[in-house]
């Protein structure tokens, strides 16, 4: 019986070493998914998010300390998922919104018009760094940052999903 335990342990050690040497670790990367009314669903990890054009946003925390967040404009991510941006006052996209969900179930809604510079001067990003460092575990790895929002409640932490929706006008 002891021989089997030693053999099993030896096999496990060899398998683990082989996986590490070949870059096949079982480390699960956090992802954010963009779903809903898009032509293609996106599943992005932190490395993939860094391939997009980066935008810097300054924002104060609850204690009044100013931080520089870096990430990607939400509208850029939606365009990559092949949703049309909002253009012009007669745009059919004015009835669309995104529902941002966090790992703890917290949810926040943004209209597409809020994300578009033709309608709003606020920059809203999906951030993955603060002051040049990865976001702290209690905030990240992904966090929505609203540049000039008066309250921090919409700067949702630990984002896992962004769903594009259309308002149901059948009330």
General description of the model:
Strand 5 (96-102) and strand 6 (107-111) form a beta hairpin. 25% of the residues are buried. This protein has one domain: Alpha-Beta Complex (Sulfite Oxidase, Chain A, domain 2), CATH 3.90.420. It has helices spanning 2-21, 46-49, 74-80, 112-115, and strands at 31-36, 42-45, 55-60, 66-73, 96-102, 107-111, 124-130, 133-134, 143-146, 159-166. By secondary structure, it is of the alpha+beta class. The strands form two sheets. Strands 2-1-10-5-6 form a five-stranded mixed beta sheet. Helix content is 20%, strand content 33%. Mean pLDDT is 83; it is low at 3-24. The radius of gyration is 21 Å and the shape is globular.
Protein topology:
Blueprint: H1 2-21, E1 31-36, E2 42-45, H2 46-49, E3 55-60, E4 66-73, H3 74-80, E5 96-102, E6 107-111, H4 112-115, E7 124-130, E8 133-134, E9 143-146, E10 159-166
Parallel strand pairs: 1-10
Antiparallel strand pairs: 1-2, 3-4, 4-7, 5-6, 5-10, 7-8, 7-9
Domain Oxidoreductase molybdopterin-binding: 64-164
Signal peptide: 1-23
Keywords: Signal
């Amino acid at each position: 019986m002891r021989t089997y335990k030693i053999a099993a342990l030896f096999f496990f050690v060899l398998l683990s070493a082989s996986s590490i040497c070949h870059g096949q670790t079982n480390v699960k990367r956090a992802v954010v998914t963009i779903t809903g009314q898009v032509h293609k669903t996106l599943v992005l990890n932190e490395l993939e998010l860094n391939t997009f054009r980066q935008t810097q946003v300054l924002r104060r925390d609850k204690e009044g300390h100013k931080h520089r967040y870096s990430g990607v404009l939400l509208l850029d991510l939606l365009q990559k998922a092949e949703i049309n941006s909002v253009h012009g006052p007669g745009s059919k996209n004015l009835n669309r919104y995104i529902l941002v969900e966090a790992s703890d179930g917290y949810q926040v809604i943004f209209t597409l018009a809020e994300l578009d510079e033709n309608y709003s001067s606020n920059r809203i990003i999906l951030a993955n760094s603060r002051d040049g460092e990865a976001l702290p575990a209690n905030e990240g790895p992904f966090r929505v940052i609203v540049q000039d929002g008066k309250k921090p409640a919409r700067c949702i932490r630990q984002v896992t999903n962004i769903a594009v929706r259309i308002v149901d006008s059948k009330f």
